[in-house]
Design brief:
This protein is α+β, with helices and mostly antiparallel strands and about 375 residues long. The chain folds into two domains: about 35-135, Sandwich (Immunoglobulin-like), CATH 2.60.40.10; about 140-370, Alpha/Beta hydrolase fold, catalytic domain (Rossmann fold, 3-Layer(aba) Sandwich), CATH 3.40.50. It is built from seven helices and 19 strands. The chain has helices at about 1-15, 200, 205-215, 245-260, 280-290, 330-340, 360-370, and strands at about 35, 50, 55-60, 65-70, 80, 80-85, 90, 100-110, 110-115, 120-125, 125-135, 150-160, 165-170, 185-190, 220-225, 270-275, 295-300, 320-325, 345-350. It has an eight-stranded mixed beta sheet with strand order 12-13-15-14-16-17-18-19, sandwiched between helices. The radius of gyration is 21 Å and the shape is globular. It comes from Pricia antarctica. One of its GO terms (molecular function) is acyltransferase activity, transferring groups other than amino-acyl groups.
Length: about 375
């Protein structure tokens, strides 16, 4: 019984975006071709990564007695660093990490700090250090010489929360020039511990779209990213999350503001909602509660739909469900097959070799975007 409870707790935390389910595979020896991570502060040599996916860290803490690097959203795992005579501490992960982006922080004598050598990204309900393990398929989110869209911050009024709230809006290349054209909209949500900066900073959503549009693989559309009000619940407290306040912000306040201030096709057939991890949970609840608001649904490591969830098939143009191969791919594939048998347009995608992490979600968006707004 105790083992069953522990397993359920781990699955719940993973679903919330709190921890990855895996951390690479241990190998014998790391190849000594380390180079600075692409997410380092300007001029900083460490942290470093090598061609196998190992990470190496170096921290200056001459007065410390113990230094450890904790990797993953929530600080899972740990790499002990060894002190040198000059007061610096250095260590290498015991095995390679999955491709893509990872959060981490440094534990110095029990205190949590960010690595001065790395850029910071909002995750784990705080600004965390970030490291990028080069991926074999990183070209799809690379910065290329193609027309680029714009990402702008907006502040929209929210009577329900008695404040102005923030969102980021991606408008595709040509939006400013094509004044007569109106665009579909994807409302894209982050996971627990993150905020509205995640999809562009960690996920490179804007670059993914720029490249797809330049290649003629996706219709141009607007993406809106706002804070999902997820971090008000405590770590692991999914059962206590009430979707109602955020649903009001999304449906009654943000969408009308976007439709008024941007050139949108303001109807359900041109509106999508998707989210990663806990953002997927929000997506599922809101799309089922408000079937007249969205017609494209996307859950990225964020659960599944069952055929009985959909009351009217005519409301739904697409259901997209994805996860990493190190998560629960069988569940995703089985759910998708059941939806197809029920007559729904359902698509599944499994990111090979990744877990509950941003490489899974980058790849998922890359697969999802070409499927949106085709009808």
């Amino acid at each position: 019984m105790m083992k069953k409870r522990i397993k359920l707790l781990v699955l719940a935390l993973s679903f919330a975006g709190a921890i990855p389910l895996s951390f690479g595979q241990q190998t014998e020896t790391a190849i000594d071709d380390f180079r600075p991570s692409s997410l380092n502060q300007p001029g900083k040599e460490f942290p470093q990564v090598n061609s196998q996916g190992y990470a190496r860290f170096k921290i200056e803490a001459p007065a410390a007695d113990s230094v450890r690097v904790s990797l993953g959203l929530g600080g899972r795992g740990g790499t002990k660093l060894t002190k040198a005579d000059d007061g610096t501490w250095m260590g290498t992960t015991e095995g390679p990490m999955d491709e893509g982006f990872h959060y981490y922080h440094v534990n110095v004598d029990g205190g949590i700090f960010n690595d001065p050598g790395a850029l910071n990204f909002y995750g784990s309900v705080r600004w965390e250090s970030g490291i990028e393990i080069p991926a074999h398929d990183q070209e799809f989110y690379a910065l290329k010489d193609v027309p680029h869209g714009h990402v702008q911050q907006i502040l929209f009024p929210s009577k329900s929360t008695d404040t102005s709230r923030r969102a980021f809006v991606y408008t595709p290349p040509g939006y400013e020039q094509n004044q007569a054209e109106k665009y579909p909209v994807l409302y894209l949500q982050h996971g627990w511990g993150e905020d509205e900066t995640a999809w562009t900073n960690q996920g490179h959503a804007n670059l993914i779209m720029d490249n797809l549009i330049a290649e003629g693989k996706s219709k141009p559309f607007i993406i809106v990213m706002t804070y999902g009000m997820t971090n008000e619940i405590k770590f692991g407290g999914l059962r206590n999350f009430d979707i109602t306040p955020f649903q009001t912000v999304m449906v009654d306040e943000l969408i009308p503001y976007v439709d008024k201030n941007f050139r949108t096709l303001a109807d359900a057939s041109h509106r999508a909602m998707g989210g990663l991890s806990m953002g997927g949970m929000e997506t599922k609840q809101i799309t089922l509660n408000k079937p007249d608001t969205f017609s494209y649904y996307a859950l990225l490591s964020g659960g599944t739909y069952a055929p009985d969830d959909i009351k009217d098939k005519s409301d739904v143009n697409l259901i997209f469900i994805s996860c990493g191969s190190k998560e629960n791919p069988e569940r995703v594939n089985e759910a998708t097959e059941a939806l197809k048998k029920a007559g729904l347009n359902a698509v599944s995608y499994i990111s090979e070799g990744t877990a509950h992490e941003f490489q899974t979600w980058r790849r998922s968006l890359h697969q999802l975007a070409p499927l949106l707004f085709k009808n």
